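seq as requested:
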Amino acid sequence: MIKETRLSPEMIDALEMAIREAVQERIDTDPDVADCYLRIIPGKWLVQVMYLEESNLTAPNRDVALLNLMYDLKDSYGGNEIWMLNDQAIRRLAESYGELLEMDLCLN
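struct tokens:
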């Protein structure tokens, strides 16, 4: 059985905002984001940020590296990292959840 779920534009906007808030909160509280990943759980629409070890333990290769969702302006200004959200990447990620297929497989 295949079940298709389509999100309204408002839901995509809400997901984008949740992603932004989660990533920005991690930047603000722990600027060492190189080993952090973002997980979106579609059924509950839960957005989590976790370290690589936790990501690999629970769902390897399923999460998105935070580095894919931000820019490092360090090269422009020198010194420590200056993380900025990548608006386009975050929007594309949210839009990628706009149409989801769920399949139930029965193996005999």
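The longest strand covers residues 36-41.
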